[in-house]
Specification:
Layout: E1 3-7, E2 10-12, E3 18-25, E4 30-39, E5 46-52, E6 57-59, E7 67-72, E8 77-82, E9 91-100, E10 108-111, E11 115-119
Length: 121
């Protein structure tokens, strides 16, 4: 079983920056993708950014040019650097991993518990 632990959320003023981290632990052979999703008040959960095993990345249009996702393979972590934050970025941010426990095995997915990001003056 894989556990994802997020950190780095908090309160920041508009225009500020935050860095989120997600550390994965457990029985993992490889990650097919790791990413960040968010759910704002009264909204559905949406993709923010993800990074694939090929190192390719995918960003939501609303965060392109402001957010950067990166991965540390040695530490099984994925980070999200968020710059130029706006009040509409306020949400609970969730880490998600798609992984395999053996090379020819099926994919599994895991979610973190979420970390609150609030952008307000």
């Amino acid at each position: 079983q894989v556990r994802l632990e997020e950190s780095g959320g908090g309160l920041v003023q508009p225009g500020g920056s935050l860095r989120l981290s997600c550390a994965a632990s457990g029985s993992i052979f490889s990650f097919d993708a790791m990413g960040w999703y968010r759910q704002g008040p009264g909204k559905q959960r949406e993709l923010v950014a993800r990074i694939f095993s090929s190192s390719g990345t995918d960003y939501a249009d609303l965060v392109k040019g402001r957010f950067t996702i990166s991965r540390d393979n040695a530490k099984n972590t994925v980070n999200l650097l968020m710059n130029s934050l706006k009040p509409e970025d306020t949400a609970v941010y969730y880490c998600k991993a798609i992984y395999r426990v053996k090379s020819d095995g099926p994919q599994f997915q895991a979610w973190g518990q979420g970390t609150q990001v609030t952008v307000s003056s």
